[in-house]
Amino acid sequence: MNHIRLNNSNFRVKGKLSVPGDKSISHRAVMFGSLAEGRTVITNFLRGDDCLATIDCFRKMGVKIEEVNGKIIVDGVGTTGLKEPEDILYTGNSGTTARLLLGLLSGLPFYSVLNGDESLNNRPMSRVADPLKLMGAKIWGREHDNKLPMAIRGTKLSAIQYELPVASAQVKSALILAGLLAEGDTKVTGKIQSRDHTEKLLQQFGVQLQINENEINIKGGQTLQGTDVFVPGDISSAAFFIALALIVPGAELVLENVGLNETRTGIIDVVKAMGGDIEIETIQSEGESYGNLRIKYSDLKATEISGAIIPRLIDEIPIIALIATQSEGTTVIQDAAELKVKETDRIEAVVTELKKLGANIEATKDGMIIHGKSKLNGGQVKTYGDHRIGMMLAIASFISSGEIILENPDCIKISYPNFFEDLNKIAQ
Ligand SMILES: O=C(O)C1=C[C@@H](OP(=O)(O)O)[C@@H](O)[C@H](O)C1
Ligand SMILES: C=C(OP(=O)(O)O)C(=O)O
């Protein structure tokens, strides 16, 4: 069996690191660059499996995408220039690729089929397909058009007004992309704000959007202009090193050029509420803001996490759970049922695996309750093929009294291809 042995409890944690580029922005830069007129040059693109799947899909639709001197060069074909793919578009493990493509392909004049890996083929797609059908989309899939593989016969779409039932940036983005190709003005509203990279980046490509709080209006038929995109470091990847610095006695880390988009910085708010020592030095505050973070080992206390902050830290909940095991008191996480439909059921995976290491943690219907502080022991744990579960368990090995054997760590390259190299850089 494929596994890795982690004996990290004697390491000191110190130094400086640049985490890889943001996954959400990397996907969108390739997608919008492909749809644009002219060339897009992407700097600090995340070369993780998910974003490589996005590149592969657009190449199959006739877009020239190359890597030159570490930058990704996309020669856009315009909104009408994508070609019918001759083969299935394989979206791998990536929910973002599949859901945003569903929106786009619905409005393009050709036939296409989307397929994913076992995990992705079990994730719900009707959240995207249902509103797209209201726009006139022709989509078929397993389980009443809810699961991949899905077939799409692109057609002329008409604008809708739609209130998002879940605070999902993927659903919102799919509808914005469909709205871009539709006739009329599409309006997407939501009660709770989700990450706004689509809105920010489309504007950078010259698309006019009207945004009033949680309401987005987009006029169909607009064109995109190629542009240069700098992708800041992914705060969701930085989160693992933030946690490491907070929980390993004596640790101090500097993380450079981390994306600080406010729709993503829930983890920083939570860490501060827990008493964590984290300093922010903002480098750029316009557009996709970013800056450096300095994090030091801290005496942490429990907190409560629920409501509107959840979409601002949804992917960080596995690692927040680990932080909570090292915090005095009872941490309660609620309103996070979305975790059940990620790469795996992340509530169950986190609770099961952290319990194996001796944590005092229980699952609830929409979150978890963690009683700290616990001493963690070693043990054999598994990733469930989920990159974020894998990285969280690898971080746990720095505070566990014995060896951690991590089964199937390969999935980590989905969002962080050189995670273990980076860990080695700052562990002395
Ligand atoms: O739009 C995006 O890039 C993402 C949105 C979130 O998913 P949901 O839209 O399902 O909340 C997040 O969990 C995912 O990692 C990336
Ligand atoms: C949920 C995630 O991604 P996606 O939905 O794109 O598969 C993630 O990266 O944690």
From TrEMBL:
Binding site for 3-phosphoshikimate: K23, S24, R28, S168, Q170, D315, K342
Location within or outside the cell: Cytoplasm
Gene3D superfamilies linked: Enolpyruvate transferase domain (3.65.10.10)
E.C. number: 2.5.1.19
Keywords: Amino-acid biosynthesis, Aromatic amino acid biosynthesis, Cytoplasm, Transferase
Keyword Transferase set for record: yes
Domain Enolpyruvate transferase: 12-423
CDD domains, alphabetized: EPSP_synthase (cd01556)
Keyword Protein transport: no
Pathway: Metabolic intermediate biosynthesis; chorismate biosynthesis; chorismate from D-erythrose 4-phosphate and phosphoenolpyruvate: step 6/7
Top-level taxon: Bacteria
Binding site for phosphoenolpyruvate: K23, G95, R123, Q170, R346, R388
Reaction equation(s) it catalyzes: 3-phosphoshikimate + phosphoenolpyruvate = 5-O-(1-carboxyvinyl)-3-phosphoshikimate + phosphate
Function: Catalyzes the transfer of the enolpyruvyl moiety of phosphoenolpyruvate (PEP) to the 5-hydroxyl of shikimate-3-phosphate (S3P) to produce enolpyruvyl shikimate-3-phosphate and inorganic phosphate.
Family listed: Belongs to the EPSP synthase family.
HAMAP family on file: EPSP_synth
Protein name: 3-phosphoshikimate 1-carboxyvinyltransferase
Species name: Pallidibacillus pasinlerensis
Lineage: Bacteria, Bacillati, Bacillota, Bacilli, Bacillales
Protein's gene: aroA
